[in-house]
Design goal:
Two copies of one chain form a homodimer. With 347 residues, the first copy, chain A, is of the alpha/beta class. Chain A has 13 helices and twelve strands. Chains A and B meet through helix 4, helix 5, strand 2, helix 6 and helix 11 of A and helix 4, helix 5, strand 2, helix 6 and helix 11 of B. Chain A binds a DNA duplex (16 and 16 nucleotides) through helix 2 and helix 4.
DNA sequence: TTGTAAGCGTTATCAA
DNA sequence: TTGATAACGCTTACAA
C-alpha cells in the first residue's frame, strides 16, 4: 500500500489538511476541491491509516469482549448480538478468552488497555472486589454482561438476566404442575450468578410453597453432560425419597441427568420430570424435548453493547445500573403434569 | 492514563531512546540504567501505546478472522483453536461476521486493510475467483480455513478437512454395514466444500460399490434441523424404494431427518439408519446417539493460525498449499449393521 | 553505552 | 475556504 494522505493531496493538488477535512466532513470545503479530493482518493485507492488517526484522536473504534470460552454456544450467541451492534456502528470487535481464570482476566484488562480499546464488555465468572477495583481505574468504560458483581456491590453498569428470578419461576412452574419433591443441580459454587443466585431462587421458591430442600436434593456441577449425569446419580442413590422433578442449571446437565435416569430404569417424564436452563439447541432436539428457561443471550449482547456505547458517548457517564433482559419458561415434553389444572407456565 | 515514554524517561533520568531499548530489548543497555528504567516503568505503571508503535513498525500484532456466523458452534470451536495460538504469540484477534454474503466479505477485506491487521484467516462459503483476486493484492497474507477455493484453482494457502474423502469414507462405512440403498442430504448447492465436494464423495463411493443414486435419494439443505426434516420427508414420499440408510451433511440435519422418520412410524436404526457430519455435541447426546464423521475444527483453527504465522514470518512466503486435518468415522447407535461381519469403521 | 532528532500518517491549531 | 505546521507517542538512524 503505502499510499498516504500526502499522495492524495499531491494528486488532487491540495494540502493534506483539505484531504483530511473532506474525509472527515469536519469543515466546509468548496465543492470543487471536494470533488477533486474524492476522485484522487478513488484513483489512488487511498485508505486512511487508523493507527495514525487513533494516535491523535485517542479513539480506535475498537471494543473488547472478554468471555471465558467462545466455543460455548451461549457465548457464541452473546457475541453475535454484540457484533451486530458494533458492525452497525463501524466498530471493530476484539475477542479474548479468559478460560474463566481470574489471573487471565486481569492480564487481559491490561493488554486491552495497551490496545487502546474504546470500551469493554466483560463476562466474568466471579466478578469480585479485586476485579472491580481494577476495572474502575481503567481508561476505558466497562459494562458487565451475563454476570453481576459478586457481593452485590453494584458499582458498575451491568446487563444480565435475573438468575434468581428465572430459577424461582422455573420452580414455581414445576410446583404448579403438582411437583413437591424437587431436586436441584446447580452451577459451580464459585459462579456467582449461575451458582449462588440460582440456588437462592430455588430455595426461595421452595420455601414460598412450604417445600423441603434436603441436602441430598442439591448438587453442583460445571454445566456439562457428565456433571448432570453424576449429579443425578448421587441424588438417586442418596435420597430417601426420590424427587418427582429435577431442575438443572443448564440444558446439557438436564440431558445428562435424563440419561442417568433412563439408565436407572426410570421413564421420563412419568417417573421423573426434568427442567433445563438456557434453551439451547439441545433442548429443542432432545428426546423428550426439554422444558427449560429461555434466556435470549443475543438480546443480552445487543443491549450490553448499546449500554457500552451509551457510556462511551456520555463521557462523564459513571452510570451504575443493572438491566435485566426478560426470561421465559418454555414448556416441553420432559415435564409431567401431576394435576389436572396446572398454573400458567409463562413467566 | 496519559503516561508516556517521556514520563518514564524523566522518572528514570534517562532518554526516551533508552527506555525504548529496555522495553524492546533491542540494544545493550547498562544494567544500572536498565534497572532504573524498569522501576520507573513500574512506578508510573506505563503502558506503551501500540498505535504509536504500529505507526512506525508497520505491525499491529493483530490478526483478523472472517467467518459467517459466530453463533454456529462449528465456528466457535474453530475460533477457539485460532485464539489459543494467537494468545500464545501475544496477538490480538479481531472477529468479523460476514453472514456468508459475498458483499460483506469483500467489504470486510477492505475494512481489515484499514485496520492494518498483520494477517487474515478467512472462512468463506463460496470462495470464487473475484474473492481470490481481491485477496491476492491485499497488503496482508491470507489463509483460507474450512473452505477451499471454488473451481479448485488453489492459488492460496488453505487449511481444511477433506470433505470429499470424509463423505466417501462415511458411505463406505455404511456399505460395510450392509447398506445398499443410501440417500444423501447435502449442504447448500452454492457451498463448494460442503455442498459440491461432499456430494462428489457420495457419488464416488456409491459408484465404487456399484450402487444406484436415483434423483429422489439426493436432497440439499442449509444444515438446519428443519432442512433435515423436510429433506427426509421428500425422500420418504418420493422414493420408490425407501433407503435403508441416510447420510446427512450436518448432525443437526441428521437429527431432523431422524425426527421425521420417527414421525412416519419408522424405527431407528432398525428401519432406517442415520449418519451425520461434524460430531457436534448434539450427536453424542441425541437418542439414539448419532453416528457421524468427526472433524476437529479446533485442530483446524490451530493449524490455520500456525500456517498464517508461518507466511507472516517468511515475508516472501507465497506458498499455496492445501493442508487437510484428519477426519474420523464415529460409530454410534443410529446405524444398524445388516450383516454379521462389518468392515472396519475407522477412516 | 547513551542521547538527539528525524520520522511514521494522521488531526487540529493557527494564520492567511 | 485553504494551507502550513505542530502535535500524537513511539522506534531508529546517527552522533556523541
Amino acid at each position: 500500500m503505502a499510499v498516504t494522505i500526502e499522495d492524495v493531496a499531491r494528486e488532487a493538488n491540495v494540502s493534506i489538511a483539505t484531504v483530511s477535512r473532506v474525509m472527515n466532513n469536519t469543515k466546509a470545503v468548496s465543492p470543487e476541491l471536494r470533488e477533486r479530493v474524492f476522485s484522487a482518493i478513488r484513483k489512488t485507492s487511498f485508505r486512511p491509516n487508523v493507527l495514525a488517526r487513533g494516535l491523535i484522536t485517542n479513539r480506535t473504534y475498537t471494543i473488547g469482549v472478554v468471555i471465558s470460552d467462545i466455543s460455548n454456544p451461549v457465548f457464541g450467541v452473546l457475541t453475535k448480538g454484540i457484533n451486530s451492534v458494533c458492525q452497525d456502528r463501524g466498530y471493530t470487535v476484539v475477542i479474548c478468552e479468559s478460560d474463566g481464570k481470574r489471573k487471565k482476566e486481569l492480564a487481559l484488562l491490561e493488554k486491552l488497555a495497551e490496545q487502546r480499546i474504546d470500551g469493554l464488555l466483560f463476562a466474568g465468572v466471579d466478578v469480585n472486589r479485586e476485579l472491580i477495583d481494577r476495572m474502575l481505574c481503567l481508561d476505558y468504560p466497562v459494562v458487565l454482561v451475563t454476570q453481576e458483581e459478586s457481593y452485590g456491590e453494584n458499582r458498575m453498569m451491568t446487563v444480565s438476566h435475573d438468575n434468581q428470578r428465572a430459577t424461582f419461576d422455573a420452580i414455581d412452574f414445576l410446583v404448579s404442575c403438582g411437583h413437591r419433591r424437587i431436586a436441584f443441580i446447580g452451577g459451580p459454587v464459585n459462579d456467582y450468578s449461575s451458582g449462588e443466585k440460582r440456588l437462592e431462587g430455588y430455595r426461595l421458591a421452595m420455601a414460598k410453597h412450604g417445600l423441603e430442600t434436603p441436602g441430598t436434593y442439591i448438587e453442583h456441577g460445571d454445566f456439562s453432560f457428565d456433571a448432570g449425569f453424576s449429579g443425578m446419580k448421587r441424588i438417586y442413590e442418596e435420597s430417601e425419597k426420590l424427587p418427582t422433578a429435577v431442575m438443572a442449571c443448564s440444558d446439557l446437565m438436564a440431558i445428562g441427568a435424563m440419561q442417568c435416569a433412563r439408565n436407572m430404569g426410570l421413564s421420563i417424564p412419568e417417573d421423573v420430570s426434568f427442567m433445563g436452563f438456557d434453551d439451547s439447541e439441545l433442548a429443542r432436539y432432545s428426546t423428550p424435548a426439554l422444558s427449560t428457561v429461555r434466556i435470549s443471550y443475543y438480546d443480552e449482547g445487543v443491549l450490553a453493547a448499546e449500554e457500552l456505547f451509551r457510556s462511551m458517548d456520555s463521557d462523564n457517564g459513571e452510570e451504575t445500573n443493572i438491566r435485566y433482559i426478560p426470561h421465559k419458561i418454555i414448556r416441553r415434553g420432559s415435564v409431567n403434569c401431576l394435576r389436572a389444572t396446572a398454573g400458567n407456565p409463562t413467566a
